[in-house]
TrEMBL record:
Stored NCBIfam families: PRK06816.1 (NF005293)
Residue runs in coiled coils: none
Species classification: Bacteria, Bacillati, Bacillota, Clostridia, Halanaerobiales
GO MF assignments: acyltransferase activity
Organism, as annotated: Orenia metallireducens
Any Pfam family the entry gives: ACP_syn_III_C
Name of this chain's protein: Beta-ketoacyl-[acyl-carrier-protein] synthase III C-terminal domain-containing protein
Keyword Transferase: yes
InterPro entries assigned to the protein according to its UniProt record, in alphabetical order: ACP_syn_III_C (IPR013747), Thiolase-like (IPR016039)
A Gene Ontology biological process term: secondary metabolite biosynthetic process
The keyword Isomerase belongs to this UniProt entry's keyword annotation: no
Residue ranges annotated for the Beta-ketoacyl-[acyl-carrier-protein] synthase III C-terminal domain, each copy included: 284-362
Keywords: Acyltransferase, Transferase
Length: 379
């Protein structure tokens, strides 16, 4: 079987960065009132800057998801690769522009490219799943190269006209508990836009370093865990109900297409079901040793979870010192399925990496508690 290498990563972040003070100027104020949850949410998540497809001045939406993804893919083109050389495009996203056709074919349309297209659905993990598809296809000698992407365009969904004002009770609860209650209005200040594309090939770069993919492991605990983060429905009597089961008035009056999350369920289970339980199994199966890890690249949605993640590693006696952690959440934002691409791209192009070093990547997803780990070696 072939070895598989990430030889280049391209990132596209739209427009100019948006600061915390500018967020509501861009997204708008719900009912023309400043959000009472914004300050608390931003204090917990640690994000200082993010990027939106919405122009700060004109409020015009400059890119849709397919366009954003296409821009990232074009960034891979150089003297050694043309668009026509791409054998397969695998795209992951949680925010496609439409229910159908799938996101990948729309991106291929933007690129005016005819080739194999694979779309992976989900939330944050969908970007890693598209990478895993590329890894498996090249490993099994089905393809010589594949471009995998992760992308999100969420800011148009977070514009004020889509939301109702947050109740005083919810804000009081947020202050009292000191945690981010990720429900509708709160998520407006958590998520942002961006796209990343990775070129996977069966041979490493002739000049410069490559990242050899040692393995990618993902698992979902949906067999025992309920829905936690969702869009396109509601939860009634502990059961998820699709928007298809309601009439149009209920759908829009209850804002069923807003992204929502059960904060209590998240906080009680996120460490066990995305860190301690799956990583313990991977350590044993892969004979993974903590001393072999030179960099830890975690995608987490908020700095609030940083210490919880560390304590989870302590619980399973797999302590990766924080000096080895690399994240750009604070200045590039939480871009969901694109985040792991954006993290790896910055480190790959930083000049810090040395051949022989190993990178452990971590992507959790709270949708119904899934998680993914990837081990890379610098070659």
């Amino acid at each position: 079987m072939n070895d598989v290498y990430i030889n280049k990563i391209s990132v596209f972040l739209p427009n100019e960065p948006v600061t915390n003070k500018e967020m509501e100027d861009v997204l708008g104020k719900v009912n023309d009132q400043a959000s009472r949850a914004r300050r608390i949410t931003l204090r917990n998540n640690g994000i200082k800057k993010r990027y939106y497809v919405i122009d700060k001045e004109s409020k015009e939406i400059k890119y849709n998801n397919a366009e954003l993804t296409a821009m990232a893919v074009r960034g891979l083109v150089d003297d050694n690769l043309s668009l026509e050389d791409i054998e397969c495009l695998a795209c992951g996203t949680s925010s496609p522009d439409q229910l159908a056709p799938n996101h990948t074919v729309m991106t291929l349309g933007e690129l005016a490219l005819n080739t194999e297209g694979i779309a992976t659905a989900g939330i944050c993990l969908s970007g890693l799943i598209s990478l895993k598809y590329g890894y498996m296809a090249i490993k099994s000698e089905c393809n010589n190269n594949i471009v995998a992407t992760g992308s999100e365009v969420v800011s148009p969904m977070f514009m004020a006209n889509h939301y109702e004002a947050l109740s005083r009770e919810k804000v009081d609860e947020l202050e009292k508990n000191g945690r981010v209650a990720f429900e509708k209005d709160f998520l407006r200040f958590m998520l942002s836009d961006g796209a990343g594309a990775a070129l996977l090939q069966d041979t490493p770069n002739k000049d410069g370093i490559s990242l050899k993919i040692e393995w990618i492991d993902t698992i979902s605990y949906a067999g025992e865990m309920p829905v936690c983060m969702y869009q396109g429905g509601k939860i009634e009597n502990n059961k998820f109900m699709s928007w298809k089961q309601f009439d149009k008035e209920e759908i829009f009056n209850q804002n069923m297409f807003a992204v929502a999350q059960n904060a209590k369920l998240l906080n009680e289970n996120i460490v066990e079901y995305t860190i301690t339980k799956p990583l313990s199994e991977i350590i044993e199966r892969r004979n993974l040793k903590v001393e072999d890890i030179d960099y830890f690249l975690p995608h987490y949605s908020s700095e609030y979870f940083r210490d919880k993640l560390y304590k989870g590693l302590e619980e399973i006696d797999f302590i990766i010192s924080k000096e080895k952690w690399f994240t750009n959440l604070s200045y590039k934002g939480n871009t969901g399925s694109a985040s792991i691409y954006i993290i790896i791209e910055e480190l790959l192009n930083s000049g810090k990496l040395q051949r022989g070093e190993k990178l452990l990547c971590f992507v959790p997803e709270s949708g119904r508690f899934s998680t993914g780990f990837m081990l890379l070696e610098v070659v």
